[in-house]
Amino acid sequence: xxxxxxxxxxxxxxxxxxxxxxLAKQQITEVLYQRARAADRRDVDLALRCYHPGATEDHxxxxxxxxxxxxxxxxxxxxxxxxxxxxxxxISNVLIDLHGDQAEVESYHIxxxxxxxxxxxxxxxxxxxxxxxxxxxxxxxxxxxxxVVFDWSRSxxxxxxxxxxxxxxxxxxxxxxxxxxxxxxxQTPVTRG
Length: 193
What we know:
This protein is an alpha+beta fold. The chain is built from five helices and six strands, in the order ααββαββββαα. A hairpin with a 2-residue loop joins strand 5 (120-137) and strand 6.
């Protein structure tokens, strides 16, 4: 019996069962974090690894192959012409309903999208949820189907950057960026993909 399926506190649950479930939930959660990192660093190979072959996606009006969405439609697509300067995804409230080697996962996200606009830069906040069906196949958890739910959003003109506001020398700051030049790859042993 899964601890999600109404296990009573006074009912003994095997230590092995509990540890296996906790390990699976941690592995699933890390897939969610890896997918967010892939978007924020425009790392297509990493994004693709978060899905099993043949996975599907419903996202921003697109319904079809997750690989097709990532490679050809999304803002991280190598061919994207979206005027995006930065993406930051924050994942929270991860709830995982395990059923053996399958899981239904709901996770909340807040995404900040910084875009260049005709009248100046715009920062958009998007709040929503990922509804993922995940499977443990070939020794790893990955997404089989993702539906993206949009719950709220707001957009504001970009304001004065913090470092400018407090008088920091921007040329001395280690700044994040898309691609291979991000400090994640230049300052740590983490590799792309």
